[in-house]
């Protein structure tokens, strides 16, 4: 392959992975029948909230002819991820750091859930990003305190399970509390997974499922990463009233949870496309975790092994990598992975890669125009040297965006309105 055709092939893999998880593809077959008598209350949150709400509204109003007077709801998505709706309110809010718009949107969702009766169906449309978009601090905790804690957790290197363990014990909506509030209505949750292992208690911080984690575990996370929380948060994490409802709680007796898209589904689509192109797919896992630069080094070694064996293959992997911030630069886990991969490959011929977040943005300042990731080509380091860019220095400063930007190697698909986490493909061309 040429550099151009290899990059185009990687683009097709990424696009196929995203399309397999888009609500237009995966949501309609899972939508439940509307209630016979009461209201249908749609509550959507996360990066796919806009597209999920758009698809659901069309299904019920246009395809089923459901009475619009019996339809209520609200969606809260990341800024730039909203979609046009005709009847239901669409709110754009902060991510990964929550903001006042998310606070107001979450309160409206809570109010609608609290108003539900036994005749109503509460349909929760959940996707990754909901933890930040639905922000309802526990009693005594201010929004600014939650924002400060979120920033500290994101910089610490804690994984998503650990971060959400803390979040669930500082919230009035997460950790099963939304389902408890919606009683006695039936609650159905349709979820797009963005977490390794597809654990419903972790996706969006599990607002409609039992929470097996505890206040003590939340405190342990902060201690493990040496995070000194604001005083109000320290108090809240010692208040028994903030313990979340556990498995077996009666609050979940009338609740159903269905995963409609998983990272694994996206990799099935990518594998199919690779085989059709005559490239052997090698799936390393859809649920990888760990430091981005360490995973990159290991995958660079694997790619070089395949190259030495004369293989034409593509290494595929997903999950959610982390970055422990030591510098002051710009970038997220996928861009840092790509930079570390370029360094480890050291210009090896015939090896190309793309790493991107399937939601369309990776790290950055929370703007919808932030890059999703980056490409690595055999001449990446040579072009960087010609431009006076020292990859080791950028890596040390966690400044992967500034490294790839002048090279024209950032992945910029824009908001995809779905989210099944990281997608990485390392192409080894014989």
Automatic annotation (TrEMBL):
It comes from the Bacteria. Residues 10-236 form the MOFRL-associated domain. Residues 314-422 form the MOFRL domain. One of its GO terms (molecular function) is glycerate kinase activity. Its EC number is 1.1.1.81. Gene3D superfamilies: Glycerate kinase, MOFRL-like N-terminal domain, MOFRL domain. Keywords: Oxidoreductase, Pyruvate. The keyword Kinase does not apply. One of its GO terms (cellular component) is cytoplasm. It holds the Pfam family MOFRL. This is Hydroxypyruvate reductase.
